[in-house]
Amino acid sequence: MTSLNVENLHVSLGGREIVQGVSFAASGGEFIGLIGPNGSGKTTLLRALLGLIPSTGGISLNNVDLRTMAAKHRALNMSYVAQERDATWPLSVETVVSLGRTPHIAPMQQLKAVDRDAVETAMREADVADMRERPITELSGGERSRVLIARALAQASSVMLADEPTSALDPAHQIRVTEIFSGLAANGRLVLMTCHDLSLAARFCTRLLLLNNGRLEADGSARQVLTAENLQRVYGVQAFFGEDEDKLVVVPRSAIG
């Protein structure tokens, strides 16, 4: 089973410590929501896990130090949906999604049947199959988000890292994408997703990590983490708490102070 271990992780950028001593262990089958206010270190944490920025402390995947892992091997094991969705080149949607198969093929090699099947499945799941020929530069922000999610799905890695993947989506696609991630976890993969929609995270994530000022403030189930005290202390808000089909519903309703 996939295992990710983070021990006393520190990240400094521009002379300021963004992530301060974060430690947690995660395994396949978990859908983890990384939550916290703006500037709490969520994106920096994901980028550090991917080796995109320098960090200190321990980061291991299946007991292998991620910092020593070859780039291709890391790409076979970890996919990433970045928060930035700008598109520079007018590549077709199908071509962009096909790039997710790059770690699985040799240089200059054509896609095989298994690769084409993975691309088709990913486009269908992300609801972008009907725009396969359209240039990604002509799509709306929400449509581009779904294309990039499809690319990560086509990568078929054991760990999925997604940075606010639902932020530009309409409500139906927010639910659909989160259901897809939930299904990945149910099938044994590890998913870490940053999210500002607390009810969405509470409904679908099996575990929440609450970050604040670079530190891990709480780690546990939605009911353990999304308490009135935590929301007041970390977010500075009062919230409505309810229930829907035995799932916690959390709606911030007023700022404190």
UniProtKB/TrEMBL annotation:
Location of the ABC transporter domain: 4-238
Keyword Transit peptide set for record: no
InterPro entries cross-referenced by the UniProt entry: AAA+_ATPase, ABC_transporter-like_ATP-bd, ABC_transporter-like_CS, P-loop_NTPase
Entry keyword Nucleotidyltransferase: no
Keywords of this entry: ATP-binding, Nucleotide-binding, Transport
Pfam hit, one: ABC_tran
Superkingdom of source: Bacteria
A GO term, aspect molecular function: ATP binding
Entry similarity comment: Belongs to the ABC transporter superfamily.
PANTHER family documented for this protein: ABC TRANSPORTER ATP-BINDING PROTEIN (PTHR42794:SF2), HEMIN IMPORT ATP-BINDING PROTEIN HMUV (PTHR42794)
Name used for this protein in its record: Vitamin B12 ABC transporter, ATPase component BtuD
Origin species: Hyphomicrobium sulfonivorans
Lineage: Bacteria, Pseudomonadati, Pseudomonadota, Alphaproteobacteria, Hyphomicrobiales
